[in-house]
Amino acid sequence: MRFLAISSFALAVLALPATSGAQRLNQDSPKGPTLQAAAVGFRSNEAKVDASTKITAAPLRRHEGQDVALMVVGVGAMIVGALVQDTAGTIIIIGGAGMALYGLYHYLE
Fold it and tell me: Is 73 exposed, middle or buried (0-12, 13-18, 19+ CB in 10 A)?
């Protein structure tokens, strides 16, 4: 029984590289990261899209990183306030909540 199991395993291992193309290198593909690989989402061929079907991009928002930073620091202050406890912890929690809500307000604006 053991001989049958070992021989079937050896046969599968010997036959596997001949049929599997998962580890083969394709010489036509570019090496390293590409812009097409970094893109996320649906891709459309620019030749198929004319000017009437193009949608204009949303305007860039300024200071968006500051709003996110305010939210993160506010939540961090709330966690620190929960660890401090007593009256000082409550004051830190309220200040952190105010900071996080201020950042959220400007982020959603």
Answer: middle
* Residue 94 included in any domain: yes
Global confidence as pTM? 0.45
Number of domains in the chain: 1
Position 109 in a domain: yes
Helix (H, G, I), strand (E, B) or coil at 33: coil
Start-to-end CA span in the chain (Å): 72
Per-residue pLDDT of the chain (109 residues; tens, 9 = 90+): 665 566 666 666 566 555 555 555 555 666 777 776 676 766 666 655 555 555 666 666 666 789 999 999 999 999 999 999 889 999 999 999 999 999 999 988 8
> Is residue 89 included in any domain, yes or no?
yes
Q: Domain span at residue 93?
A: 62-109
CB 69 within 8 A of CB 104: no
